[in-house]
Design goal:
By secondary structure, the chain is an all-alpha fold. About 70% of the residues lie in helices and about 0% in strands. It contains 27 helices and four strands. It has a two-stranded antiparallel ribbon with strand order 1-2. The chain has a two-stranded antiparallel ribbon with strand order 3-4. Strand 3 and strand 4 form a beta hairpin. Helix 9 crosses helix 20, helix 10 packs across helix 18 and helix 15 packs across helix 18. One of its GO terms (biological process) is sodium ion transport.
């Protein structure tokens, strides 16, 4: 790392820490700390939430997948696009969840089912979450050690200490500062600024890579794989075990089934100004994700080319020796491409990539810390109390819990030995909760006959099967015939069947869905945000719009955004169907596949990255301004703290049902 690289790296860190100090004054209540006052606009949510997917661990996880399968998995991924886009545009789960006004998922589960089930789900989600999060700071710190060119160990007080452990402590400390000051308000603003800077940095990074590597060099490298393990021809990749068409099909099902069930970004699910803004943030997130994936994909294939193409043999010569010094086999695999990246980038650009990674680490880790720390307090600690905490005490408890999660992640990351691909570890730990929770959430939001016994049964069955899979996989390792995705898939199917059967056997009375969703006569029980728009007049919706999920809340601009995204997905879905049939009859030669990926895998995503970089920068700045205006006008309601009384949020329950509540001021 040169002095210029360190300067480039320090600039975004300075900005983020300054934002943390300046925004804490806007945090006045538990609802502000937990949900940002529920006044966030779509672009702010899209950029801020998306930043948690820009950290070093995401780069490493996708590097692993691309190094194994190249572009071949991407061919099959387009088959899932129409399904995922309908889910996003229709607001499946997301819209109705925001209507409940719950701050955490388990709060909704108490409204829909029972207090005991809320506690059970809170404990289960918390345990699964901190296990999932436990490796993230460690993987990110390992990446930074090698990309910064730091030694593996540092002598501290006469004892050798792994450098990644020290870096992990530094990054977690910075993240805690951001998270603890103003809660979600600080996180949203800092993550949005990080996201805007990252989007603009992506464009510079793309330009640098295209100047260093030619497509001919990349194509020659990707073509040099034996038959059955092609990185460009999906019909000649039968030897690739984990990342194939069956992986994509199962992941499509699990993604839809687990919509919003995983709570690593739970605060963002309740932070939108209204349900429609939450839905549009999900739609816009699809556009932004394509731009980010372009950078990671290009960086990965360039790193592979750097390692294997003879034109770069001299520059890449030190990489194998550095990787060989890593004692853990799985870490060796993970760090091969990051080490290559540290050698291939020029001065200044290397610092820029480090800045992107560090901003992503802060954004991702802060969201995890806030989510799991809040879930412990809201869904494990608070339900056992007979009286709610005063706002000041409540916020202090949230902060202490967040610190506890950071301490756990530090020691877990330091001691845990990785034996899985990161993506597989994420999937199996997620399934500990989502395996049963998907059925419980979808059934609870859309089926009035879902029952409490069914929720218990589905959650226990799904979690037991998934947790058992983790244990067996850890014992037998890669020799076990099922990977993490396959375990999660079958556990989820059994949980769905359990929920449906038990509900049909035990339902005696339908649940009042209108009251839970604040519809009809119950709409008057909630207090509108000062800047929230009045009810949208009915608009005529076409048949295609209804099929896709467009409703009367969509403005003309919203329809263009959603329609263009859906059209883009359908276009490539059709290309995959036609191309698959074509290859069955007359297989494309390698040269055709290389030309295809040059356009679809590199050129088109880069164009999207350019467009979204400008588009979302404007939208993010606009929404940050609106956030502060709404926060100044917002009314502090001390009863809005996540407590549930008789299947209603405390601030909505009738006066006769409300608890005696402390009157201490919320602001600290």
């Amino acid at each position: 790392m040169s002095i210029l690289d360190w300067i480039v790296l320090s600039i975004p860190l300075t900005i983020v820490l300054s934002v943390a100090v300046l925004t804490q004054k806007y945090m006045k209540s538990v609802a502000d700390f937990m949900s940002g006052g529920r006044v966030a606009g779509r672009y702010l949510l899209t950029i801020a939430k998306g930043e948690m997917g820009a950290g070093a661990v995401v780069f490493v996880a996708l590097f692993e997948k691309i190094a194994q399968s190249g572009f071949t998995t991407n061919w099959w991924i387009w088959l899932q696009m129409p399904i995922l886009l309908v889910v996003a545009i229709s607001g499946f789960v997301i819209y109705r969840y925001r209507e409940t006004r719950a701050m955490t998922l388990a709060q909704f589960l108490e409204i829909r089912y029972s207090k005991r089930f809320r506690v059970f789900a809170g404990v289960l989600g918390f345990v699964a979450g901190i296990m999932n999060f436990g490796i993230i700071p460690a993987v990110g710190s390992h990446f930074m050690v090698y990309i910064l060119g730091l030694p593996r160990e540092i002598i501290l007080f006469a004892y050798p200490v792994p450098t990644f452990v020290l870096l992990m402590g530094v990054f977690l400390s910075i993240t805690l500062l951001v998270t603890l000051t103003g809660g979600l308000i600080t996180m949203m603003v800092s993550d949005c600024i990080e996201g805007i800077l990252s989007q603009l940095s992506y464009l510079v990074l793309i330009g640098a890579l295209l100047l260093i590597f030619s497509w001919d060099q990349i194509a020659q490298t990707l073509s040099a794989r034996p038959p059955g393990q092609s990185m460009v021809n999906p019909f000649d990749s039968q030897g690739i075990k984990d990342f194939n068409i069956f992986y994509v099909m199962m992941m499509t099902f699990l993604t839809v089934y687990g919509t919003m069930a995983w709570q690593n970004a739970s605060a963002y699910n309740s932070a939108a100004l209204n349900p429609h803004e939450s839905r549009m943030a999900s739609v816009l997130g699809r556009w932004r994700e394509m731009g980010k994936i372009a950078v990671i994909t290009l960086l990965a294939v360039c790193a592979i080319t750097f390692l294997k193409h003879p034109d770069f043999a001299t520059q890449a010569a030190p990489v194998p020796a550095i990787v060989a010094q890593i004692p853990e086999a799985q870490i060796q695999k993970q760090m091969e491409l990051p080490v290559a990246v540290s050698f291939l980038l020029p001065v200044g650009i290397k610092g820029l990539l480090c800045a992107i990674l560090v901003m992503g680490m802060i954004g991702g880790d802060s969201t995890h810390l806030h989510s799991w720390g809040s879930i412990f307090v809201q869904d494990v600690l608070m339900p056992f109390r007979k009286k709610p905490l005063a706002p000041r005490q409540h916020i202090r408890a949230l902060r202490l819990s967040i610190v506890g999660v950071a301490i756990f992640a530090f020691f877990f990351g330091m001691l845990f030995k990785q034996t899985e691909y990161i993506i597989m570890w994420f999937q199996i730990t997620t399934a500990i909760f989502v395996g049963g929770a998907g059925a419980v959430i979808i059934g609870g939001l859309y089926w009035s006959r879902g029952t409490v016994p069914a929720a218990w049964a589905a959650m226990i069955v799904g979690s037991t099967l998934s947790g058992g899979g983790i244990l067996v996989r850890q014992i037998y390792g890669p020799s076990f015939p099922w990977n993490g995705v396959e375990i999660a898939f079958w556990a989820s199917l059994i949980a769905i069947a359990t929920y449906v059967v038990v509900s049909l056997l035990t339902c005696r009375e339908s649940f009042n869905m209108d009251r839970m969703l604040h519809r009809g006569p119950y709409a008057a029980t909630i207090e509108k945000a000062p800047a929230e728009s009045p009810a949208t007049p009915e608009r005529k919706i076409s048949l295609v719009g209804k099929i896709v999920g467009i409703d009367s809340n969509f403005t003309r601009a919203d329809k263009w955004i959603a329609g263009s995204l859906f059209g883009w997905g359908i276009l490539w879905f059709a290309v995959v169907i036609i191309g698959s049939l074509w290859n069955i009859v007359a297989p494309w030669p390698e040269s055709v596949w290389l030309s295809y990926w040059h356009v679809v895998g590199i050129a088109a995503p880069i164009f999207i990255a350019l467009v979204t970089g400008v588009w979302f920068t404007w939208g993010g700045i606009r929404d940050m301004k609106q956030l502060f205006i709404r926060l100044r006008l917002s009314h502090v309601n001390p009863l809005d703290d996540g407590t549930v009384i008789n299947h209603q949020n405390l601030d909505e329950a009738g006066a006769e049902s409300r608890m005696e509540y402390p009157t201490s001021q919320a602001k600290e």
